[in-house]
Amino acid sequence: MKKILIFFVFLIIIISCKKEVATKSDPLSPDRKQTERDYRRVFYLSTVFPDSLQFYAEKLEKETARQPNEYKAMAVIVKSIYYANFNSYQLAMEGYEKGLLLLKDSKADSLKCRLYIGIGSCAKVNGNNPKAFANLYKALAIYEKLGDRRGIADVNANLAHVYMQKGDSQLAKQYLQIALKTLEKDKTDGFYLTTSHSLANVYGMNGEYDKALALDEEGIRISEKIGSDKIKVMFLDNKANCFMYTNRLDSAQYYFDECLKLDYKIGNKKQIADSYGNLGFLASLKKDFPTAEKLLFKSIEILKEIKHKPNLAKSYSLLVGVYEQQEKFKQALETQKEFYKQYKLMIDERKEASLAEFRIIHETQQKEKKLAQNKVELLKREVESKRKNTTILILSVLVFFVIIVGYMIYRQQRLKVNQQQQEFQLKSAISQIETQNKLQEQRLSISRDLHDNIGAQLTFIISSVDNVKYGFGVKNTVLGSKLDNISNFTRETIIELRDTIWAMNNNHITFEDLRVRILNFIEKAKLAKEDIHFKFSIEDSLEDVSFSSVQGINIYRTIQEALNNAIKHANASEIIILARLTDGAIRVEIDDNGKGFEFEATEIGNGLHNMKKRMEDIGGVFEIGSEMGKGTRISIVIDKPFLNN
Asked: Is the pTM of this model over 0.85?
């Protein structure tokens, strides 16, 4: 009996351990990986495609229903971002505070910071500055402890916006300058540029136009470098306003025109309408009232189409001023009526949205109250159930001992069967290892044959061609050229063969291996093209990343082909190769400052098709962008989780 009890306790411990192991392995499940990917994607969508936020909010809510609180908090953050994007700040605040309750006993500091920042932003919009400051400083303390530069800059930028709302431009400038200082090592980061734009706006509002223009110039230069028209147009707009408010109207006209060109290129109708509005106001300052009317009507037409009531009301207001300056009081009165109509519609919409927001809050509270009542009822039932179960448990114990005795007998038989299965599995494993060893030997044998036989034969061809050319004193220029071509092609084939043998002889290829290969290739390219300057850089964070031989050779061949294309066709003076880690993926970019080409008008050759196919074969993405006179960029992106598969 004593032995049976000991066995029973031991069995319970084993089951508990298994459950714990399963729990620890859960975070590696595909569902949670998908949740994390969706969560990261939302921060990009919130600024580019805000309409898709509702879909992701609902998707994450379903995905995380049975996941730990950290994942539920991610879903709450996404839903709150959705509410905030559509001005439902009370709902957003409720969501962020719910997220903090979920993470009460969690160590997920980054998620807590995101929630603190969210609460601070909503409190700022609602005019509750003390609450905004309290939550933002909580986030700042955590980010400083973690040494998270991006987070520190984010909080300082948010603190600056609170001070801007309070009308304290000096402190707003101070915190924006801290944010920029924190990110000064990476000025091409989008957050650095948007923060720089905010500081330029503050300078402009304070009449410090020289400082504002200096930041605008830097922002335009960097946004052109990274190819971001959306960021560039922000700085152009601020620059135009600085010139307009310093009465340099011709300069303002030029930069507002540049804004309009980029707005059309980007396709953002709201921004196009804003640019027409700015140009209309500028024309009124120049006393060119017919042009001002024409431009403002264009702005109004687009704003009506996209139903943007705040800016529509603003454009009508500007048009009223244009009519009044021309003493067209009848048109001014009619336009003033239209302005009040749009303003009333905007106010009514905000009231409806506010009522709907509080209705949702009320319904949510009612649901939570109902859930609490259900929990109480459930607890009562559980107490009653426990009383019944006590009786059943006593009977079950007796039955259990009978089962244990039977199990012990069964277990003895099962152990014998398991032992036989383990012996069989061991033999199978030994056989598999032997098979793998044989395959490795065959692989090495093939690579030796390639090197010793085919390599030697290719070398013999080169020697024979040279002997024919020099031994027989070939004078025929065409024949000599043909022999040179055969010799050069054979040498290139030997190099390709050596690269293939190198890949075959390595189970894993590191970035350091690729660095050496690519540097060798560049050195040879320099001998052929001395006028091209090469820059090659691999981030330190990629030193420990390794690939399978198939992945490694495909990545190397793609980079090699991209460099070949740039050297042969681009007429470039500089080629830059950069490998870095961004958002959990490895990105390799090959940039040249050559002549570029019109992508749509150019027939794509086998080289580009081959590069794209190589990346698809290893789960990567191939991208190419080019513009006439501005060079070409080829990018390959490999998600880190795909590596070494």
From this structure: no
